[in-house]
Design goal:
This protein is an alpha/beta fold and 147 residues long. It is built from 4 helices and 5 strands, in the order E-E-E-H-E-H-E-H-H. It has a 5-stranded mixed sheet with strand order 3-2-1-4-5, sandwiched between helices.
């Protein structure tokens, strides 16, 4: 299935990324409250969506939830391995973003973002009516409310 382009008009876009095997991705146009895309995807597809914006002459403020800034941990070995994987994803995102003209990178500590928002509350806060996962909502909350 070919998805509709998220590029409504050339301009400045905000993109939120919740890194992981299931990467949360959200975007909105700077100055707008309306979320354009709120999805769960792969890191490769998320990069392709950002490249689509750049190729269409847009600039991007990329907001990434940076697990490397997390200082508290709960759980066992499996959770620690998962956290290590997400930290590596954050490093990949940072390295990639720094090589992209038109991208301004913002690494956000998990404690500085509203995360784990339930679906009904998310819809009330953002007005976004589409189906979303926890990862996609976390990505959206990184950019929602920013001018």
């Amino acid at each position: 299935m070919i998805e509709k382009s998220m590029v409504e008009t050339v301009g400045h876009y905000l993109v939120g990324i919740d890194p992981g095997v299931k990467t949360g991705f959200a975007t909105k146009k700077k100055g707008s409250k309306q979320l354009i895309r709120v999805k769960t995807t792969t890191i490769i597809q998320a990069i392709e969506w950002i490249k689509e914006l750049l190729l269409n002459g847009c600039t991007v403020d990329l907001h990434i939830e940076d697990a490397r800034k997390r200082t508290w941990f709960t759980g066992g070995r499996e959770k620690a391995q998962g956290a290590g994987s997400i930290k590596r994803d954050c490093q990949i995102w940072e390295e990639w973003a720094k090589t992209q003209p038109g991208v301004t990178l913002h690494l956000i500590a998990p404690k500085n973002s509203m995360t784990k928002v339930k679906d009904g509350i998310f819809k009330k806060i953002t007005g976004h009516e589409g189906r979303t996962s926890e990862h996609a909502r976390d990505a959206a909350m990184l950019i929602f409310g920013r001018p």
